[in-house]
Design goal:
The complex is a heterodimer of chains A (414) and B (427). Chain A is α+β, with helices and mostly antiparallel strands and 414 residues long. Chain A is built from 15 helices and 11 strands. With 427 residues, chain B is an alpha+beta fold. Chain B has 2 domains: 199 residues, Cytochrome Bc1 Complex, Chain A, domain 1 (2-Layer Sandwich); 179 residues, Metalloenzyme, LuxS/M16 peptidase-like (Cytochrome Bc1 Complex, Chain A, domain 1, 2-Layer Sandwich). Helices cover 42% and strands 19% of the residues of chain B. Chain B contains 15 helices and 11 strands. In chain B, strand 4 and strand 5 form a beta hairpin. Chain B is globular and about 65 Å long. Classes of the chains: A alpha+beta (414), B alpha+beta (427). Chains A and B meet through helix 2, strand 5, helix 3, helix 4 and helix 10 of A and helix 2, strand 5, helix 4, helix 10 and strand 10 of B.
Chain lengths: 414, 427
């Protein structure tokens, strides 16, 4: 249970404050409602590229990072298909500095062609380091493209290709900033040993005068219903054959999301999961296997992926996987199996509430997805999932015509 | 309100160090760090069983892998269902010095977990079939890793820097055929069963939890001393080592041997390292990422093992900039040695490190890590007080001194993987 206070400034900035007297550290988190799904399909990767540019400095604080370091702080950011998140932790005495810095870069970012060019190169190197220079590094992006044909989730946050990143101009970046980086498109959360009243005064002081803007959000083309199973095989220079499956599922805020999440835990969360027990432990068909749900604000994916032992065929693995899935569809998990995944969820949940940075991120994200109060209903929602619900859910979603399957075959010379 | 006036920053920190309650029972040293209010505990059983003790590569890591099959009483699927059924997150892992069993457990399930742990460490179930499966799994992972230039660089770096020491022994493809089931089983018998361990417990610990821990420890049949052994002294193979590979980027890794944490200059070296490449504002990050855009990141760190300490600089970089990056790193080191750090930059560095230290003491789980990081070297909490003292008083001359004395370029080993396919490699 996290206690919090929520306010909204006249310019639309939502503020969530949570008091935790046990720590000398304060966490400040800003979630902007802009992600890769908001990009122009001809210039993908811009939301993430822009995240890098947010560290270029602002009118009154040309040296963002140095200011944070000088206040004893640590900061970073990430971009997903749904949103862009910036966070700082610093000694609680320096909270106001963080608010000053964040408000200044929301208000008047100082973009130069020098920083644009340098960060363009950095992002291209990031693209290579994380996606291209890793075996299997690009497979998730390929699965995404196979799963979504219409919806902007079809491209990865890093972008569809390096060419898209190469063509971003200073004007493109400024337009993106003016369009999305406004107080009414942001949720600010603050967690730590802070006093609510004075914290809000500080927020008002630094953010209150920033003007809101009209957020011109693109229309997210809905995905047309899939009518049959999609299978794609790619050949790559990898040491082991691999497979990635995705079943299309609903969005995070749907009532059935905890059911989907616990189903993925039952099938592939850890070594005790059904798929791991059967395919790795008993039959020795795969070297690794796991499953999870993406938990997006829009239509999500239930992903099962694994790497196969030498000499095992794709069809052998498929057959065994369907056996497990179909058994679970038919009889549902036993009480013990269900209690296991609920207990693991609870441990992770308790752990997640032990640290102010996690709490600040989760509060803001919860508000972004729907409403901050959802955060305190989550544990109960998971406890309420029954074996019957899991059966029903699986019979609706885990069917062949809802499946997109990527087979990664090692090339002959590999 | 005037935006051009930055709010005042306060840089005095006060570390709240929780007390470490020590108790030695039945040869086992228990350390409690009690704090927080969440009903979650972290348990760590730390054995002197890291890879430096093994007769050949993979023996120790496979030994700890196979322990995950459970005990004679509860094994295979039943074991995994039982421990996960309690909602426990666990890891059985080895480092160069230690083998560690770690657990996060809800307080209400502590008693049941302790029973499970006890069975595993007294009478582990060690099926040969599972050993073979895990060996194949590790081999597959190894094959995947070998496609990564960063992995190839790291392997080579350990070999050349820690040459002749156990710390430099890394696994090669053929080692997967040489390691045998009986070796890992013997390892478990020699190093785990009947051996004492260091027991770290952190979180909100009730008296009841303590008495459960006490009876658990007292019931163990500890029969040997589990003594430490030292790794041999490394004889670094200086100079540059190249691993050709056709890849999108090249990975560089370079470094040298340093004095250990117990050395009086260590804090100064550590601060000089942060300036060089230990934070976002570091000289290397500013030069090679923020100025030149050659890389997504470059980092310099100090890795301390029981019998050797090293400086490690690593980066994945534009494939034709490997050579140039070495040169830039050398220039930045020479710069540290020949020019005093401006006072403004030093202030930022000191303030950053104070905040980082404060955060690293935030909560019982963090504090137990800080405790073990010094305890493993025979040091105690005063290490951090000395560190704060050094941070408060360090001068530009101190940093220059540390860089001159401890970052000598001719003592570096350099490794590059990838990015050289256009030339034939030599040396």
């Amino acid at each position: 249970m996290i206690n919090y206070e929520k306010y909204e400034l006249r310019n639309g900035l939502k503020v969530i404050v949570h008091q935790d007297e046990s720590t000398p550290i304060v966490a400040v988190n800003l979630a902007f409602d802009v992600g890769a799904r908001d990009e122009d399909p001809t210039m993908t990767g811009l939301a993430h590229f822009f995240e890098h540019l947010m560290f270029s400095g602002s009118k009154n604080a040309p040296d963002y990072d140095i200011q944070v370091q000088n206040a004893g702080g640590q900061n970073n950011a990430f971009t997903t298909n749904d949103y862009t998140n910036y966070y700082i932790t610093l000694p609680k005495t320096n909270l106001e500095l963080a608010l000053w810095l964040e408000s200044d870069r929301m208000f008047q970012l100082n973009l130069t062609s020098k920083s644009l060019e340098t960060q363009r190169q950095v992002v291209i190197e990031e693209f290579k380091q994380r996606y291209l220079n890793q075996p299997y590094g690009n497979n998730l992006a390929q699965l995404r493209a196979l799963t979504y044909k219409d919806h902007p989730y079809k491209w990865a946050t890093i972008g569809e290709s390096i060419e898209h990143i190469e063509k971003v101009s200073l004007d493109d970046a400024m337009r993106f900033y003016n369009k999305f980086y406004a107080p009414n498109n942001c949720i600010l959360s603050i967690c730590g040993d802070v006093e609510i009243e004075s914290t809000l005064q500080l927020v008002e002081k630094w953010f209150g005068s920033i003007e809101s803007s009209t957020i011109d959000r693109p229309f997210y083309t809905p995905e047309k219903p899939q009518v049959e199973q999609r299978i794609k095989t790619v050949e790559e220079d990898v040491p082991l054959n691999a497979f990635l499956w995705s079943f299309k599922i609903g969005q995070r805020t749907n009532a059935d999301f905890p059911t989907a999440d616990l189903t993925s835990d039952l099938l592939g969360r850890d070594e005790s999961s059904l798929l791991h027990q059967r395919l790795a432990f008993e039959l020795n068909l795969v070297s690794s296997i796991s499953s999870y749900v993406t938990g997006d604000r829009g239509p999500g994916m239930f992903i099962i992926s694994g790497k196969m032992n030498d000499g095992i065929s794709f069809s052998q693995v498929e057959e065994e996987m369907w056996k497990i899935i179909n058994e679970l569809k038919k009889s549902g998990p036993s009480e013990i199996e269900l209690l296991k995944v609920k207990n693991k969820f609870e441990t992770a949940h308790v752990y997640g509430e032990m640290n102010v940075m996690n709490k600040a991120m989760n509060l803001a994200y919860s508000e972004l997805c729907h409403h901050v109060s959802d955060i305190n209903k989550e544990l109960q929602n998971y406890q309420n999932v029954s074996s019957e619900k899991i059966k029903e859910w699986m019979n609706e979603f885990m069917i062949k015509k809802n499946l997109c399957q990527l087979n990664v075959k090692k090339s002959k010379n590999g | 309100m005037d935006r051009s006036l930055a709010p005042k920053v306060q840089n005095k920190i006060e570390l709240t160090k929780l007390s470490v309650e020590k108790q030695t029972l039945n040869g086992v040293e228990i350390n409690y760090v009690n704090g927080g209010s969440a009903p979650l505990l972290k348990l760590e059983l730390i054995y002197n069983a890291g890879s430096k003790y093994q007769s050949q590569p993979l023996v120790a890591s496979l030994a700890f892998d196979i322990l995950k099959d459970g005990s004679e009483q509860l094994n295979g699927t039943s074991f995994k269902e039982a421990i996960n059924g309690l909602g426990v997150y666990y890891g059985f892992e080895i480092s160069k010095d230690f083998g560690t069993l770690s657990f996060y457990v809800l307080e209400r399930n502590l008693n049941e977990l302790l029973q499970i742990i006890k069975d595993v460490i007294i009478s582990p179930h060690l099926p040969e079939r599972e050993f073979n499966r895990l060996r194949l799994k590790q081999k597959n992972e190894f094959l995947i890793d070998c496609e990564k230039t960063s992995f190839l660089a790291r392997q080579k770096f350990a070999e050349v820097l820690f040459n002749e020491s156990q710390y430099g022994k890394v696994a090669h493809y053929e080692d997967f055929d040489k390691v045998e089931y009986s070796m890992s089983v013997n390892y478990i018998h020699e190093k785990i069963i009947a051996s004492p361990f260091k027991f770290l417990i952190s979180g909100c610990i009730s008296d009841q939890s303590k008495s459960l821990v006490t009876s658990f420890v007292q019931s163990l049949p500890i029969a040997n001393k589990g003594e430490k052994e030292n790794a041999r002294k490394p004889k670094a193979k200086l100079g540059k080592h190249i691993i050709p590979k056709d890849a999108e980027q090249c990975s560089i890794m370079l470094g040298k041997i340093l004095p250990s944490k117990t050395h009086p200059d260590f804090h100064k070296i550590s601060i000089a390292n942060t300036l060089l490449g230990g934070y976002f504002g570091s000289r290397l990050m500013q030069n090679i990422r923020e100025e030149k855009g050659w890389t997504y990141g470059i980092h310099s760190s100090i890795l301390g093992y029981e019998n050797a300490t090293s400086l490690v600089i690593a980066s994945d970089i534009l494939k034709d900039k490997g050579e140039a990056a070495f040169d830039e790193i050398r220039k930045e080191i020479i710069h540290l040695q020949t020019e005093l750090i401006p006072l403004e930059e030093l202030d930022v560095l000191k303030n950053y490190l104070k905040g980082k230290l404060l955060k690293s003491f935030d909560g019982a789980f963090e504090q137990i890590d800080r405790f073990f990081a010094v305890d493993a070297f025979g040091l105690n909490w005063s290490y951090y007080d000395d560190y704060i003292q050094t941070l408060s008083h360090i001068t530009p001359q101190d940093i220059q001194y540390a860089a001159e004395k401890y970052f000598k370029w001719e003592e570096f080993v350099l490794v590059q993987a990838g990015g050289m396919n256009e030339k034939s490699p030599h040396k």
